[in-house]
């Protein structure tokens, strides 16, 4: 794993679980009921009701080289790692690798962890795609887009987790997701998709020139992505945009975010779609640091009043029609 993967935010304090109350234990060394995370998830009961209790899986420290898929029939599962830095699920698929038909598998078939089930909780764990920096490889297909995480489930929470990758690290494809005190690294469009997602006190780290977000917010959606009270850092000399619109109604907001000089002065990019300047909603409030520069931001970024910013809490952004509050236990 590259050194950059070990860069952690001062905001990020991984909590240790010596042995939380749990229904199943995973241990790479064979001392648990299961040796892989997928085995434990596949054995979980099928609980899909929003009020049903979560099945709790405790994952001991270790590296689990596997792909994990959570089907819709197995929501309401909690996966709790022993330590965020030492409990790692990793795999190395990327978009250019050939599938069974000999054709490239494409971006959406590369995730290390794919979640279709609703109501999941992930805590104190690293999800990594270790395909490496995009580019040519001798005797092998050039490394391309590579997902660490794909989420299609609703009401999915990540606490004290680390997400490691390069291009397209996290696909929040649909539903609502809450990320708190997480570390996310990548280079190009590495947080993307059509979901409503709230990133609370998260550390975003840039590995190479690129774009942090590529939202594809559906037309008419109340919210896209909101980043609150976090920080953005990068490798020396690296420059990034806060976002560009994968789809033309993209919504992305940064609140009270500490921005290093890795953030470009203009802030946002239109992805060579001039019409998107009229339809996107890109905004900031309370940015600080050398990368915060209201005067230099693109003129088509939207103003955000203090009252409007104050109203963008995780509870309000993610409430939806069922009143979901991700801050409840």
What's the SSE blueprint?
Layout: E1 24-26, H1 37-42, E2 55-59, E3 62-65, E4 68-70, E5 77-81, E6 87-91, E7 113-115, E8 121-123, E9 126-129, E10 135-137, E11 140-143, E12 149-151, E13 156-159, E14 162-164, E15 170-172, E16 176-180, E17 183-193, E18 196-200, E19 203-215, E20 225-228, E21 231-234, E22 240-243, E23 251-255, E24 258-259, H2 276-279, E25 281-285, H3 306-310, H4 314-318
Parallel strand pairs: 1-2, 2-5, 3-6, 4-7, 5-8, 6-9, 7-12, 8-13, 9-14, 12-15, 13-16, 14-17, 15-17, 16-18, 17-19, 18-20, 19-21, 19-22, 20-23, 21-24, 23-25
Antiparallel strand pairs: 10-11
* Succession of helices and strands: EHEEEEEEEEEEEEEEEEEEEEEEEHEHH
Count of DSSP strands:
25
For CATH, the homologous superfamily of the largest domain is named as Single-stranded right-handed beta-helix, Pectin lyase-like
Residues in β-strands, percent: 25-35%
Please compute the radius of gyration using only Cα atoms: 19 Å
The dominant shape is globular
CATH architecture of the largest domain: 3 Solenoid
Helix residue percentage: under 10%
Uncertain stretches: 1-17
- Structural class of the secondary structure composition? mainly beta
Structurally, how many domains make up the residues?
A: 2
The end-to-end distance, rounded to whole angstroms, is: 33 Å
Number of helices: 4
Mean pLDDT value? 93
CATH class of the largest domain: Mainly Beta
Largest sheet: 13 strands, parallel
Q: In CATH terms, what is the fold-level topology of the largest domain?
A: Pectate Lyase C-like
């Amino acid at each position: 794993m590259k050194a950059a993967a070990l860069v952690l935010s001062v905001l990020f304090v991984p909590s240790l679980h010596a042995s939380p109350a749990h229904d199943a234990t995973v241990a790479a060394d064979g001392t648990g009921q299961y040796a892989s995370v997928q085995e434990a998830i596949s054995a979980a009961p099928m609980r899909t009701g929003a009020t049903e209790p979560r099945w709790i899986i405790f994952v001991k420290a270790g590296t689990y080289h596997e792909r994990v898929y959570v089907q819709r029939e197995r929501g309401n599962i909690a996966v709790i790692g022993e330590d965020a830095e030492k409990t790692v699920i990793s795999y190395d698929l990327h978009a250019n690798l050939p599938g069974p038909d000999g054709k490239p598998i494409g971006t959406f078939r590369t995730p290390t962890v794919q979640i279709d089930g609703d109501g999941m909780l992930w805590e104190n764990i690293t999800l990594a795609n270790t395909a490496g920096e995009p580019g040519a490889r001798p005797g092998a297909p050039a490394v391309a887009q590579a997902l660490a995480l794909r989420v299609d489930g609703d009401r999915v929470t990540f606490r004290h987790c680390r997400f490691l990758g390069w291009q397209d690290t996290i696909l929040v494809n649909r539903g609502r997701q809450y990320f708190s005190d997480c570390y996310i690294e990548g280079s190009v469009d590495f947080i993307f998709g059509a979901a409503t997602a709230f990133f609370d006190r998260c550390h975003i780290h840039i590995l190479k020139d690129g774009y942090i977000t590529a939202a594809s917010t559906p037309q008419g959606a109340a919210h896209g992505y909101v980043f609150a009270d976090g920080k953005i850092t990068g490798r020396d000399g690296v420059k990034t945009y806060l976002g560009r619109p994968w789809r033309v109604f993209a919504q992305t907001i940064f609140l009270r975010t500490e921005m290093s000089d890795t953030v470009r002065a203009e802030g946002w990019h239109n992805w060579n779609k001039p019409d998107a300047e009229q339809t996107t909603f890109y905004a900031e409030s309370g940015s600080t640091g050398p990368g915060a520069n209201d005067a230099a931001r693109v003129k088509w970024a939207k103003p955000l009043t203090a009252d409007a910013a104050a109203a963008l809490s995780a509870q309000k952004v993610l409430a939806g029609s069922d009143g979901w509050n991700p801050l409840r236990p």
